[in-house]
Amino acid sequence: MDNQPVKIELSNKPKTEIVDMETKENINDRDNINNNSNNKRKIIIIIIIIIVIIIIAFIFILLFAILKVHKDKKIPIIIDVDEGGDDMIAYTIANNSQKYDILGITTMSPEYYVDKVADIWLKFLKYMDFDAKFYIGEDHPLVRQTSPAVFSHNYGIEFPNTTKTAESKNAVDFMYDTIKNSNKKVTLFLLAPLTNFAKVIQRDKTIIKNIKEIIIMGGCKKEGNMEMNPHAEYNIYSDAEAANIVFNCGANIKVLGTDVTHKVEFTNEIFEKYRTMNTKSSNLTYFAMKGNYETWGDYYLHDPVTVLYHLNNNIIKFKKYYANVNTTNPDVNGTNYGTIDFVLPINDIKSNIEYSESIDLEEYWKTFDKYIKKY
Ligand SMILES: [Ca+2]
Questions:
Q1: Ligand 1 mean position, distance from CA 332 (Å)
Q2: What are phi and psi of 183, to 5 degrees?
């Protein structure tokens, strides 16, 4: 037997170094694993952030789309007013219904106090917290030199002062440009003498192709409200020439006159209901009725019937007529100026308006309450 000792070859490297190297490799491996794990975590976090951003963006786009559809569903309208408390109630009902995209409020007022009308409307809008643009228009009728207008600012409410001013654009220019450029047909509520819109028609009759409907408070068959001509109603009597231009413009026109507004009786029970209902709109209604009574001796609120009818078609029944407004002797009291001849459309006579023939008072009050209670 060869007794030579077994030769053990030892590595040149010291043992500790080998261990250190192994440890380093392990650490490197672990670091790599950790780094990989961290990278994966970062990627996951980035993916989650991207997904959250996409979800938020999607929600915003969806909300925007819903709001746009909601706005598109609204009916674009312009309301032409004077200083009456009933004009303000009509506006309030339109606003409270949330069914309209109110493009602007316009006014004309004869007797040269159009600025006063703008002032009281801006204060009213502030009192009600309504956000609307107000445009001042014509300050005298088309032809006549005098007018029956009386500024009766008895609202029973002290409207607050406001720094808000009327828009610089003239009401006629605003009406014309807005209707012409609207991508949806515009509905007009005309609650005052018809001078502003008559001026629009005089400028360009083709504008009516972009009008859906014109709803006018004015006129009467029998019972008017003018001392100078008991068969005439104020809005038509104030500018009969303008009324004829508007009636014959070819648009779809509904006219609601005093024959129906005088049927709306305000009993003590109704008066008390609005006194105690305790909404801003009911306060306005109560004080407008009270103001009317103290100034004119009646509670009539003429203008709200236009918006109420538009919100609930069951309130008014109409009949088609060819309506011609008498324009002779514009500045002579006691003549037929401002009286409407209603002719039934037969043979060659074509109707130019639909006139209010009857009113359903139960539907009227139901609809009135619905929108006055809201706010
Ligand atoms: Ca009015």
A1: 23
A2: -85, 0
Q: How far is the CA of 302 from the centre of ligand 1 (A)?
A: 7
- Ramachandran area for residue 103 (φ above 0: left; ψ -120 to 50: alpha; else beta): alpha
Q: In angstroms, what is the span from residue 63 Cα to ligand 1's centroid?
A: 38
Q: Output the CA 366–ligand 1 centroid distance in Å.
A: 22
Give the Å distance between the CA of 24 and the centre of ligand 1: 93
- Please state, as a whole number, how many other Cβ atoms lie within 10 Å of the Cβ of residue 188: 24
pLDDT range class, residue 338, cuts 50, 70, 90: very high
Q: 83 CA to middle of ligand 1, Å?
A: 7
State the Cα–Cα distance between residues 82 and 196, nearest whole angstrom. 11
The three-point CA angle 214-215-217 to 5° equals 140
Q: CA dist 360 to 308, 313, 354, 363, Å?
A: 11, 10, 17, 6
Measured in Å, residue 16 CA sits from the centre of ligand 1 at: 104
**138 alpha carbon – ligand 1 mean position (Å):** 15
Integer CA distances (angstroms), 297 to 82, 225, 292, 302, in order: 20, 12, 7, 15
- Residue 336 makes CB contacts below 8 A (sequence gap 6+) with 229, 231, 232, 326, 328, 329
Helices (H), 212-354: 234-238, 240-247, 258-261, 268-277, 280-296, 304-311
Residue 113 C-alpha to ligand 1 middle, in angstroms? 15
The predicted structure's pLDDT at residue 294: 82
Q: Helices 85-97 and 304-311 meet at what angle, rounded to 10? A: 20
Query: Maximum CA pair distance of the chain?
Result: 157
Q: Which pLDDT tens digit goes with each residue over 161-179?
A: 999 999 999 999 999 999 9
Centre of ligand 1 to C-alpha 147, Å, is 15
Q: pLDDT tens, 52-78?
A: 999 999 988 888 877 777 667 999 999
Question: Residue 193 carries which side chain, given as an amino acid letter?
Answer: P
* Contacts for 339 with CB less than 8 Å, ≥ 6 apart: 224, 229, 231, 232, 325, 326
At 38 the three-state DSSP class reads helix
- Which residues are in the CB-under-5-Å shell of ion ligand 1? 82, 84, 87, 191-192, 303
Question: Ligand 1 mean position to 269 CA, how many Å?
Answer: 25
